[in-house]
Amino acid sequence: MAMLPVQNFAGDNESDEGIDTREPPSKVLITLSIVPNDPMIRLEDLNLQIRRLEIDGVQWKEFVNEQTYQGTIPRLIVKCLIDDSITNEQLIDEIRALEDYVEEAYVMKRAYQPAS
């Protein structure tokens, strides 16, 4: 009995070069602490400036105003999801670019989120 050659009917012998076979990006929930550069800046205004930032790979989530305690400068706590197209450093640099509002920004916490 003669064996017939196997044919690839799935793609009509076309190459798979244009098909994206990567896994969906994983997400990381980041908690940021953002300190205004002036204690007189309202955290609500800082919140609005941060929300207006359109950064690829970032989904803004929760914003919490941390009030002044015993003379310390108030800060804004921000939660956001980032995917693997942006690093923590890139995100922090984008926020620090708001020089009129931001004195310091840093990552407080990271939590891995499975790919969706």
UniProtKB/TrEMBL annotation:
GO terms for molecular function: translation elongation factor activity. Belongs to the EF-1-beta/EF-1-delta family. It comes from the Eukaryota. Residues 30-107 form the Translation elongation factor EF1B beta/delta subunit guanine nucleotide exchange domain. It comes from Dimorphilus gyrociliatus. Keywords: Elongation factor, Protein biosynthesis. This is DgyrCDS559. InterPro entries: eEF-1beta-like_sf, EF1B_bsu/dsu_GNE, Transl_elong_EF1B/ribsomal_bS6.
